[in-house]
Amino acid sequence: MAIKTNSTVLTSLSALNKFSSAQEVYSHLLKTKNNVGLSTVYRTLQKLAEADEVDFIRRPDGEGVYKVCVPSHHHHLLCANCGASVEFQSEKFEKLLDSISSQFGYTIKGHEAEIVGLCKKCST
Fold first, then answer.
1. CATH T-level fold of 2-67
2. What is the per-residue pLDDT across 7-49, written as a single tens digit (0 to 9) for each?
3. Disulfide: which of 4, 44, 102, 111 matches 9 by Cβ 3.0-4.6 Å?
């Protein structure tokens, strides 16, 4: 049952195609006639995030949200107004982090970056 539930939740999250809360995924599942409980959605999303099958971030308001993203190392630009997100990879950004860590005598073991601002649509 767990594999089917994982697949059902992943399919729903993919269809939403944005960072979505467990409640949003649950609502989508109800609309598509999938009988999965809200607590099951929370547990499944948490397990998928722990297995690096989905990305987890906190919105500026503190709510935890999930998204199916590219499997390689990347970062996100997040719109504080509409919730839109863009995945990006940047060698310059990685080099800047290396430079900053070196300046302070740190060795980077890992990092995540979510840059919050306004998307083009919300900026105008």
1. Arc Repressor Mutant, subunit A (1.10.10)
2. 899 999 999 988 999 999 999 999 998 888 999 999 999 999 9
3. 44
